[in-house]
């Protein structure tokens, strides 16, 4: 399970890298919109986590 923690500042880096998994919610912070990440998106999710400036994505 991929989780976005409370460190998220809503910069949008993860949504730019992996829009199939991440989106900004009404509060302006990122969330995993899929829940369980399909195998074909795992590399993209890892790249999104690496691009997060506040390390808010927990793999």
UniProtKB/TrEMBL annotation:
Ferredoxins are iron-sulfur proteins that transfer electrons in a wide variety of metabolic reactions. SUPFAM superfamilies: 4Fe-4S ferredoxins. The keyword Transport applies. Residues 1-27 form the 4Fe-4S ferredoxin-type domain. Keywords: Electron transport, Iron, Iron-sulfur, Metal-binding, Transport. It comes from the Bacteria. GO terms for molecular function: electron transfer activity; iron ion binding; iron-sulfur cluster binding. PANTHER family: FERREDOXIN (PTHR36923). It holds the Pfam family Fer4_15. This is Ferredoxin.
């Amino acid at each position: 399970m991929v989780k976005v923690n409370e460190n998220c500042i809503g910069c949008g880096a993860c949504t730019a890298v992996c829009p199939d998994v991440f989106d900004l919610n009404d509060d302006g912070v990122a969330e995993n919109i899929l829940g369980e990440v399909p195998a074909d998106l795992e590399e993209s999710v890892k790249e999104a986590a690496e691009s997060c400036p506040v390390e808010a994505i927990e793999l």
